[in-house]
Amino acid sequence: MQSDEHTRLSLVLGLAGWVAGLACYVLIEAWQNAWLPDHLLVFASTACLAGMAMFLALTGPAPAGRVMPLAVGAGLVLGGAELWGALRFQNAEAYMAMVYPLLFGALAWLIATGFAAAHLTGQGGWRDYPALFSQSWRVVVNFVVSLVFVGLFWGLLGLSHLLLDIVGLDLMRLLTYFEVLPWVLSGTVLGLAMARVHASAEYISPYLVLRLLRMLSPIVLAVIAVFLVMLPVRGWDGLMQGFSPAATLMAFAAAGVTLVTVAVERSEFDEVKTPWMRSVTQALALTIPGLSALALWAVMLRVWQYSWTPQRLLAVTMACVLLVYGLSYLASVMIQRAWMARIRQANIWMALLVLAVSLAWFTPLFQPERISAQGQLSIAQNGGAADQIDLRELTKSWGNPGAQALSDIQAARPDLAEAIDLARQGRSKPAVDPATRAQRFVEVLPIYPSGRLDPADLSEIRPYLITKWLAACERTIAAGPGCALFVTQDGATGPRRAILFTRSGTNIVEAIHLERRAGKLGTAGATFSLDGPMRLDDRTLDALHRGEAKLVSREIQALDVGGRSIFAHN
């Protein structure tokens, strides 16, 4: 780039950065001082930040005059989408506290910026995959480099302040005398850094990052292969341990999508050439559907147990998108001929799908708060206990749909009036003394085949576990409470060894091994099934309450109940 062109670009982006910094300061002041209704502030903040960021990202590779209409249009569309979503809430701050406004807003901006860059610089328009691939990665790298430079700039100012402070000069006080100054200074430095990065495109390239990422493919594939081999050997119960396994599976599926995309590159000329790396890429592509399906199943287990929440809807959405990615890659690899070219074309359509899904979350087509609120209302209408209903979330986090569902629950379930009032006050149930809770637990806990339990026996068990088990007892089934204790070895002062069954959710029963040590009962390890994965349901509790459980003599002592054989393992 010629010197005068670089100077002109520096002036344009420096001024744009100055305006962006000033806008950030004004918007923060507007939020703090309520200059506008907060819903309008959501629109203004999103439109301004998205538009300015796109202008900074694309001006340089393309003339400012061509970038400006696209940046303004993208800002208005994204701002309108965020406003549409915020209208579900009386308080826009509660809306912005949700995860998805920022996540899907950022995804929509990144994809839209990539397509805009391809439209401005590619020979084939917005569907020009080489331009879409290279420019999307360049946008990310350029922003990272520029933001690092801004951090270094402020680090230098901090050191300068320390040096000048020795001679009695307070540099930071001078720079912060006007509150707006740090903002406009940061914006200007960011704009100038972006100008230098654009001018040095031949030196600051994403291709080094892409080549380094390729080196991770064999490692990721090896880890996934070990996981998939060991999963049926070790059992599927780990997938039932909440959101964490699903998040890990989705992270590896997303890593697989990224590494496959990096391997197929932007064109046939740039794709991986070595046979073994092509095989690694194929194998990695084939694992993505399995990981995504397992992640989806793990999340759905929580949904079936506890119903929908916006977070679970978000997880299901991400898992479904990754599953579609994986299926498109699977089809491309199975066809074999020109499979890398097919993946490149699939990536274009998948980017459009992700953009559409991201925007749909802000529209009436998909309202996570309403879906979640209706799920909680259904639980209440079916007789669910107060601890099974997310009353606090309905009150504080799910906007207008949550408030409406809470009113419907109050009308349908007068017995929940006290719990609803406490939730509206931001309080949980009044504190209960641990001894009282333990007393209540032993009163409602059925013990089979016979025996007695004293609250003092439970003094070494953590109070939160007693609370959890007591709540399980209240999730009754037709045959009795949602809990039961089967004594496998009795003692003079009470059960010496026992298995505690608790109903943690609808048709989900957990089994915990208890053992007496030093006169007190405590948890003593896991329980295992001799005849398949350890998945117990309401039939197990039903069989216990009907007296159908019995100890059997094998090489190890086991409990036969509900057609299952269970043993305790220390």
TrEMBL record:
<feature type="transmembrane region" description="Helical">
    <location>
        <begin position="9"/>
        <end position="28"/>
    </location>
</feature>
<protein>
    <recommendedName>
        <fullName>DUF4153 domain-containing protein</fullName>
    </recommendedName>
</protein>
<dbReference type="Pfam" id="PF13687">
    <property type="entry name" value="DUF4153"/>
</dbReference>
<feature type="transmembrane region" description="Helical">
    <location>
        <begin position="139"/>
        <end position="160"/>
    </location>
</feature>
<dbReference type="InterPro" id="IPR025291">
    <property type="entry name" value="DUF4153"/>
</dbReference>
<keyword id="KW-1133">Transmembrane helix</keyword>
<feature type="transmembrane region" description="Helical">
    <location>
        <begin position="283"/>
        <end position="301"/>
    </location>
</feature>
<feature type="transmembrane region" description="Helical">
    <location>
        <begin position="313"/>
        <end position="335"/>
    </location>
</feature>
<keyword id="KW-0812">Transmembrane</keyword>
<feature type="transmembrane region" description="Helical">
    <location>
        <begin position="67"/>
        <end position="87"/>
    </location>
</feature>
<feature type="transmembrane region" description="Helical">
    <location>
        <begin position="347"/>
        <end position="366"/>
    </location>
</feature>
<feature type="transmembrane region" description="Helical">
    <location>
        <begin position="40"/>
        <end position="60"/>
    </location>
</feature>
<feature type="transmembrane region" description="Helical">
    <location>
        <begin position="243"/>
        <end position="262"/>
    </location>
</feature>
<feature type="transmembrane region" description="Helical">
    <location>
        <begin position="180"/>
        <end position="199"/>
    </location>
</feature>
<feature type="transmembrane region" description="Helical">
    <location>
        <begin position="99"/>
        <end position="118"/>
    </location>
</feature>
<feature type="transmembrane region" description="Helical">
    <location>
        <begin position="211"/>
        <end position="231"/>
    </location>
</feature>
<keyword id="KW-0472">Membrane</keyword>
